[in-house]
Amino acid sequence: MAEALSREGIGRLFFGRSWAQPAETRIAARRARVVCVASGKGGVGKSILSTNLAVLRARLGERVLLIDFDVGFANDHLLFGLAPRHDLVSVLEGRTGALDAVVPGPEGVFLLSGGVGRTELVSATRRELDRLFRALAPLEARFDRIIVDHGAGLSYATLAQLAVAPTLLIVTSHEVTALSDAYALFKRALAANPKVRAGLVINRVPSRAHAESAWERYSGACRKFLGAVPELVGWVPADEAVGASVDERKPLVLARPESAAARAFEPIAAWRALDQGAGASAFYDQACAALR
Ligand SMILES: Nc1ncnc2c1ncn2[C@@H]1O[C@H](COP(=O)(O)OP(=O)(O)OP(=O)(O)O)[C@@H](O)[C@H]1O
Ligand SMILES: [Mg+2]
């Protein structure tokens, strides 16, 4: 079972020194840049994308925290081969601090799990989310990158985060039902957050032709009805290597780096919008404000 890192432990990992030293002697930390990963339809590949993106961004030298906001139905710990003792519900209930719920994963990535079988946050109230977001806010000073892997659809928690997210990756398959839901998600995100840099990832496509045809339909509808189109950040082929990496509980880019799908994640991790905004803004403070 993965142990939650103590403050001391994380402090040593990040800074090679004690976490508990006086504030003035700490290395000044910038705020993490945040990217939300969301979809309308479920099961389209958000968690596969989020876990692989986390590894690839860590390889670029970022201190990466993946927050699994699919609370109660979290998967990212399984995809990392971890069994964290604490999760977002423990943080909400005040049984642990956010930092103490964070566990180390592969390639120097850190994970804050959403927990399994705990439905407390599925219909979270404004007060609960406010408390949780406030508890998460200090994490922003400890990481360069926060990737938020959302549950499918638009829960209150997801919407509050999309309303203030600087960047959003929308995941879909090439199928018309998933595309329609991805359109609805983009529409809602744009209405709440007109400044969001949104990108689309078309996952599990049988061929380039399927990806191109899906993009044509999706971008056409967005342009016509919304007057705005997300960027096409990439498409990922349907690849048996993905299922094999899930069975191995290891991110694909580690388990099968030569596979076609692993190769397809590389340009997605290099999406230029991920580097926008020096120092970035106080994401969870803003998310609290978005609850009102
Ligand atoms: N490119 C791919 N090729 C083949 N299989 C894939 C691919 N991407 C995802 N899968 C399969 O689809 C499953 C679901 O993916 P994932 O858990 O990432 O979806 P999700 O959008 O996070 O689902 P949920 O909405 O439940 O959170 C994976 O376990 C994997 O087996
Ligand atoms: Mg998921």
Describe, in plain words, how this protein is organized in 3D.
The structure is a single chain. By secondary structure, the chain is an alpha/beta fold. It has a single domain, classed as 3-Layer(aba) Sandwich (Rossmann fold). The protein is built from 13 helices and 8 strands. Helix 8 links the parallel strand 6 (167-172) and strand 7 (197-205). The protein is globular, with a radius of gyration of 18 Å. Bound molecules: adenosine-5'-triphosphate and magnesium ion. Residues 39, 42-48, 70, 75, 151-152, 203-204, 236, 238-239, 242-243, 246, 261 line the site of adenosine-5'-triphosphate.
Counting DSSP E segments of at least 2 residues, the number of strands comes to 8
Shape: globular
Give unreliable regions as ranges.
1-29
How helical, in percent, are the residues?
40-55%
The CATH architecture name reads 3-Layer(aba) Sandwich
Major sheet characteristics: 8 strands, mixed
Strand arrangement in the largest pleated sheet: 3-4-2-5-1-6-7-8
Number of helices: 13
**Into how many domains do the coordinates divide?**
1
- Beta-sheet strand percentage? 15-25%
Structure classification: alpha/beta
- CATH top level? Alpha Beta
Could you tell me the radius of gyration in angstroms?
18 Å
SSE sequence, one letter per element:
HEHEHHHEEHEHEHEHEHHHH
| Span of the ends, CA to CA | 39 Å
Mean pLDDT: 90
**Distinct compounds present:** adenosine-5'-triphosphate, magnesium ion
CATH topology: Rossmann fold
